[in-house]
Design the sequence.
């Protein structure tokens, strides 16, 4: 709404209100009469679509002022139904603003009643002026609007005033009037000539209808934009390249039209920057991040009117480089999009790389159809950066570069001081316990336990995940047979790529054998333990008689080559155990060896001392039996009984027969002998035959026969 008309309207509205108030003071009040409905004088559309309503005070208001309750203002977008009500409670108020009507988009209808002793009968329904606009040609404007009332109201001025305003001047100008009595919105049109002298402008129109009461009905304001002249011709884009500073550099050809004052840069058809000056033919785009994707860039010139740009140039996409490193394969696959719309064809792509911030060098060249390259052999810890450059097959100096990407080649940290502490037979079992010390800071993913019967043919027996925050890892081998041979173990370290990055020292179990000699000796033989940090300090020998109560027997000092820390050759070690002093036994001797690591060296790096047990082995001694050839029940040797050691209880049978072959004594208890009686009675002196049978603890059967002389 044009501002100066609003000021005129406001002054007249308050003057009219003052006159009516003064005029009404002289009336004599008549109580109890219904107050008449007021006449609507003006409906004015505000810029936001609200409507200011102005009405005259009812003729009998003063005489019935004591019955006044309210004015009821009815509003609808349809003349016949759906009215909403706004209530005004002051009897001498003659204007208000009705909010949210949307009168700037369509006509809105109003009528007013007075509520006193009852609701009055409305006078007439009036509508706001809704102005519509057409632009049939660049220099013409056609206006049409609806009247406030189908016929002219008594206080209404006889003509509509049409005002025009240009945005560049902001000055409203009266461009014509239309007779309010004869104007027909169905057949009547108001035509105005548009005069654009500054290339482009927006023209606005408003229709006004004054009222003799002093107010003015304003329509909504409507308008259109006009442009004079033709859009400038398109320019050609050279290249779109990513700079080292991670900005997009765009260059294009200069426009040949003198009225061009600048250029608009687009991304996917959306303006992102404007460059002014006809000679400005390049620009660094900082609003886009070329490291996140490829962008489609075009350029269009703009002329001095600054309203319409010319056609956009050919489109070129930024080269977007990304990678897919494979740490395990030690490769990095580079991929980029195809560059389009060079002046000539794509001649090819050049891949550049830099190591640890050094100068970029050519890594590879590809043909125009290949947009990927695999960088291999990344087996060093270093930082590698890459970018790709495309070149024009016609103009080799025309190139465009991609974004720069960097990749840090990360390799697993080699373990430090991984060490196989021991490989030991678990006493009284057939299992072997293997334990290692590991570097928890190496980032190892798993450990592989391997076993062999010689150092050249290891096989994996189990894989264990890396323990969390623990420098010890162990495994129990349940499938070995340590009573038959020695085993060699080692531990392999696997990184996160399942690749072996370290192998520990070996650990060779002690295999012990024992042989029973006929001269009262048991001979023990065993192999060296391999490979502690230092060779073994000594071997402790433990023995048990008949499997009961193992006791320390002897210490054998290590006799091998001490100065070698690895690959100590196995040596045969022997110990002879004299059993002559053993008076009571079943003849089964059990032995095991305990090897002790040497932690006394000045360079020994660990805080622990390890040991390793051998298998348990047995030596079976054959029984030794002495049978006397005479005895005297009344003398010193009163009982005839075999005396021996290492005789098994199983199968023992001692019998005595007379000269006729008759059995006169028998015992299955090695502790019971013949006292020279038969059924409690003494037998005569003479020569008797004996028979002794027994089974050794090895299961061998023995039989001895002979004669004994009974003396009295």
Sequence:
């Amino acid at each position: 709404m044009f501002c100066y008309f609003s000021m005129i309207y406001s002054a007249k509205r308050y003057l009219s209100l003052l006159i009516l108030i003064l005029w009404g003071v002289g009336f004599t009040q008549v109580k109890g009469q219904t107050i008449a409905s007021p006449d609507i004088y003006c409906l004015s559309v505000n810029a936001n679509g609200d409507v200011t309503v102005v009405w005259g005070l009812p003729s009998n208001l003063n005489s019935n002022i004591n019955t006044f309750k309210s004015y009821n203002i009815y509003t609808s977008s349809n003349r016949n139904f759906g009215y909403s009500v706004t209530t005004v409670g002051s009897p001498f108020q003659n204007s208000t603003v009705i909010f949210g009507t949307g009168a700037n988009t369509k006509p809105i209808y109003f009528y007013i009643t007075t509520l006193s002793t009852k609701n009055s009968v409305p006078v007439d329904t009036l509508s706001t002026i809704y102005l519509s606009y057409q632009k049939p040609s660049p220099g013409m404007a056609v206006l049409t609007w609806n009247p406030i009332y189908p016929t002219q109201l008594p206080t209404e001025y006889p003509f509509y005033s049409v005002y025009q305003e240009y945005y560049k001047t902001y000055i409203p100008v009266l461009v014509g009037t239309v007779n309010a009595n004869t104007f027909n919105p169905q057949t009547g049109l108001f035509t105005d000539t548009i005069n654009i002298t500054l290339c482009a402008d927006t023209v606005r129109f408003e229709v006004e209808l004054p009222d003799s009461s002093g107010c003015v009905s304003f329509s909504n304001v409507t308008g259109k934009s006009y442009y004079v002249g033709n859009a400038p011709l398109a320019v050609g884009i050279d290249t779109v390249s990513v700079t080292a500073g991670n900005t997009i550099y765009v260059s294009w050809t200069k426009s040949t039209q003198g009225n061009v004052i600048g250029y608009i840069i687009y991304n996917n058809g959306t303006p992102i920057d404007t460059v002014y000056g006809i000679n400005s033919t390049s620009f660094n785009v900082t609003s886009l991040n070329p490291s996140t994707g490829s962008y489609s860039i075009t350029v269009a010139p703009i002329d001095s009117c600054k309203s319409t740009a010319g056609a956009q140039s050919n489109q070129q996409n930024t080269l977007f480089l990304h990678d897919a490193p494979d740490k395990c394969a030690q490769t990095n696959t580079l991929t980029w999009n195809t560059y389009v719309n060079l002046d000539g064809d794509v001649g090819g792509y050049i891949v550049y790389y830099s190591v640890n911030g050094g100068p970029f060098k050519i890594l590879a060249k590809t043909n125009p159809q290949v947009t990927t390259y695999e960088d291999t052999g990344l087996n060093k810890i270093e930082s590698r950066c890459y970018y790709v450059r495309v070149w024009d097959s016609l103009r080799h100096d025309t190139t465009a570069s991609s974004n720069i990407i960097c990749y840090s080649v990360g390799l697993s940290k080699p373990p430090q001081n991984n060490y196989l502490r021991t490989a030991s037979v678990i006493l009284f079992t057939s299992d072997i316990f293997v334990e290692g010390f590991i570097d928890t800071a190496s980032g190892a993913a798993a450990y592989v336990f391997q076993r062999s019967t010689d150092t050249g043919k290891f096989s994996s027996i189990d894989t264990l995940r890396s323990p969390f925050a623990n420098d010890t890892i162990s495994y129990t081998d349940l499938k070995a047979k340590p009573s038959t041979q020695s085993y060699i173990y080692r531990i392999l370290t696997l990184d996160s790529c399942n690749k072996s990055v370290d192998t520990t020292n070996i650990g060779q179990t002690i295999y012990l054998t024992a042989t029973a000699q006929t001269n009262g000796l048991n001979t023990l033989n065993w192999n060296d333990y391999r490979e502690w940090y230092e060779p073994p300090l000594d071997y402790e020998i433990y023995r048990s008689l008949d499997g009961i109560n193992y006791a320390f027997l002897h210490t054998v000092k290590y006799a091998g080559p001490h100065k070698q820390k690895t690959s100590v050759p196995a040596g045969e070690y022997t110990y002879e155990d004299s059993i002559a002093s053993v008076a009571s036994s079943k003849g089964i001797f059990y032995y095991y060896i305990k090897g002790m690591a040497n932690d006394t060296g000045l360079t020994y790096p660990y805080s622990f001392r390890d040991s390793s047990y051998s298998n348990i082995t047995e030596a079976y001694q054959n029984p030794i039996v002495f049978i006397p050839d005479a005895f005297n029940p009344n003398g010193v040797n009163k009982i005839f009984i075999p005396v021996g050691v290492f005789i098994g209880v199983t199968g023992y049978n001692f019998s005595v027969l007379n000269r006729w072959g008759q059995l006169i004594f028998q015992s299955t208890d090695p502790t019971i002998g013949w006292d020279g009686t038969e059924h409690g009675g003494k037998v005569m002196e003479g020569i008797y035959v004996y028979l002794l049978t027994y089974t050794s603890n090895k299961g061998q059967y023995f039989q001895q026969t002979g004669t004994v002389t009974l003396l009295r």
